[in-house]
Design a protein that fits this description.
Blueprint: E1 2-7, H1 11-23, E2 27-33, E3 37-39, E4 53-55, H2 56-60, E5 66-69, E6 72-76, E7 81-84, E8 87-90, E9 93-96, H3 119-131, E10 138-142, E11 158-162
Parallel strand pairs: 1-2, 1-9, 2-5
Antiparallel strand pairs: 3-4, 6-7, 7-8, 10-11
The structure holds flavin-adenine dinucleotide.
Flavin-adenine dinucleotide is lined by residues 7-13, 32-35, 41-42, 44-45, 71-72, 97-100, 116-117, 154.
Length: 163
């Protein structure tokens, strides 16, 4: 039986797993990701970051996809083996969906910046805002890259200003 290995448990990895499971019942499918949850990153700006986490087992279990909870360290494309968390996992097909990660600018004061790139970052910002309830008001400003785009639409940067 052909073994499909997917690296990453975000939108891309999970949808690849769902698509592979739909294509054939004769595939063995494994998804490798270090966390227990699929994090819906576009929702991380919301007040409760926990709402943006969906247990991977809830999606992968019913479609028979195995979740290996580990980070892939190396990929040997000649031998068709990935190494993750001390395990060597052989594959016939590999889907690389390890996503992206914020790069902090090397600017003075950058260590005081907040971000909503990860659930940990969103938790830090939520806790910070909670601690600052005494602040007069929190003003969320949004600005569009195109005037035609609806407020809150995809691709729109959002900024928060404490006043
Ligand atoms: C605040 C915010 C708002 C956004 N809004 C929008 C929007 O409105 N519209 C839109 O289209 N997009 C939006 N995006 C972008 C969108 O969230 C990303 O494009 C999308 O999450 C990318 O999905 P992904 O599966 O490729 O990667 P990710 O969601 O980054 O998932 C990567 C996965 O790979 C795993 N991983 C990483 N390294 C390894 C490793 N070595 N081994 C195993 N697993 C690994 C991670 O743990 C994770 O499970 C937004 C992003 C953010 C942060």
């Amino acid at each position: 039986m052909s073994h499909v290995v997917i690296v990453g448990g975000g939108f891309a990895g999970v949808w690849a797993a769902v698509a592979a499971a739909r294509v054939s019942e004769d595939l063995r499918i494994s998804l490798i990701a270090p966390g227990d949850d699929m994090v819906l990153r576009p929702r991380l700006y919301e007040p409760d970051p926990e709402q943006a986490a969906l247990p991977l087992r809830a999606v992968l279990g019913p479609i028979g996809v195995r979740h290996l909870r580990a980070a892939v360290e190396t990929i040997d494309v000649e031998a068709r083996v990935v190494r993750a968390g001390g395990a060597a996992v052989g594959y016939d097909r590999l889907v690389l969906a390890a996503g992206s990660r914020l790069v902090r600018p090397e600017l003075p004061g950058a260590e005081r910046l907040f971000d909503v790139d990860t659930i940990e970052g969103a938790r830090r910002l939520a806790a910070h805002l909670e601690d600052r309830r005494d602040v007069t008001s929190v003003v969320f400003r949004r600005w569009t890259t195109s005037p035609a785009r609806r407020p809150g639409g995809a691709g729109e940067p959002a900024g928060a200003v404490l006043t």
